[in-house]
Design brief:
The protein is of the alpha/beta class. It has 11 helices and 12 strands. A hairpin with a 2-residue loop joins strand 9 and strand 10. The relative contact order is 0.11.
Length: 305
């Protein structure tokens, strides 16, 4: 399978390195010229558990240099999904598949409008990565990847991709109802990301104070109410899942927290903001998510002030 990574930040580079290290044909595509140049000249350095591994992998800023691929894997920030969708259309041609493992909601919908929904696969991953410098990342944590078709006709594509990933040492499971999987991941992001970004705390510190736990609980419960109104299947207790995730990733700074630290645009519109928009359509009050969204939007609007 010939694969292109659209977005070669921390996660795109991580998946690219894992696949390339297993002999899969992969090309990294990214807008950062310094990162692309470093990978081309010296290879991609992956740090894990105090050890460093260098993987040779092609990288470019020009999608025209890649040509048709069997799979375009989208790892850009949700704010860039529209542009990535047009790139995916060119790279996937008339027969290739497109997989999104991005944070937040709405990304698969955008991709499905750009090409046939049956060729769109979506999912989540428990892998974690940090961008260290051009040409170098840290593999911060490993876990299962779960993917599924955006339309019922795409199950064979999801299974084929899962097979390639598993053979490359990326534990992956294909499921029929990926919408429920994406909502479960959204609950975690809703409960952790904005709160940690606004307060400057790490994930585990969300559990230190009752008032912080209560805030996260209220945000997640609002999201659960919206999901139920949409007919989404919910497994277990989403609030407890958020707390377990915060504990398991205790030393980590959330992705939104890292964005705020680096004064970058966040994915708030695809996370808490998505809850607000969907709640409006359903006539459900979500005051906590509305406040968290407004605060992050205010913060990032004044980065240069």
């Amino acid at each position: 399978m010939n694969i292109a990574m659209i977005g070669a930040g921390a996660m795109g580079s991580l998946f690219g390195s894992l696949l390339a290290g297993a002999g899969v044909s992969v090309t990294l595509l990214d807008i950062r010229q310094d990162h692309v140049d470093a990978v081309e000249r010296h290879g991609l350095t992956v740090e894990k558990g105090g050890r460093r591994l260098t993987v040779r992998i092609p990288a470019t800023t020009d999608p025209e240099a890649i040509g048709p691929v069997d799979l375009a894997l989208v790892f850009v920030k949700s704010t860039h999904t529209d542009a990535a969708a047009q790139t995916a259309v060119r790279l996937a041609g008339s027969t290739g598949w497109v997989l999104t493992l991005q944070n937040g909601m709405g990304n698969a919908d955008i991709l499905a409008k750009a090409l046939e929904p049956a060729r769109v696969v979506a999912g989540t991953t428990s892998h974690g990565a940090t961008f260290l410098q051009p040409g170098a990342i840290r593999h911060a944590g490993a876990g299962e990847t779960v993917i599924g078709p955006w339309s019922a006709a795409g199950m064979s594509a999801a299974e084929a991709i899962a097979d390639v990933f598993n053979r490359a040492g990326i534990p992956t499971r294909a499921v029929a109802d990926v919408h429920a999987v994406l909502w479960a991941k959204l609950f975690v992001n809703v409960g952790i990301n904005a709160i940690t970004a606004l307060t400057g705390i790490k994930n585990g510190q969300l559990l230190d104070l009752k008032q912080t736990r209560d805030l996260a609980r209220e945000a997640v419960n609002e999201a659960v109410a919206v999901a139920r109104a949409r007919g989404i299947s919910i497994q277990g207790d989403p609030v407890e899942t958020v707390f377990r995730t915060a504990e398991a990733t205790g030393p980590n700074r959330s992705s939104m927290g890292q964005d705020v630290d680096q004064r970058r645009l966040t994915e708030i519109t695809a996370i808490n903001g998505y809850i607000v928009r969907t709640a409006n359509d359903a006539g459900i009050a979500v005051p906590v998510n509305r406040a968290l969204t407004a605060l992050i939007e205010t913060l990032q609007a004044h980065y240069r002030a």
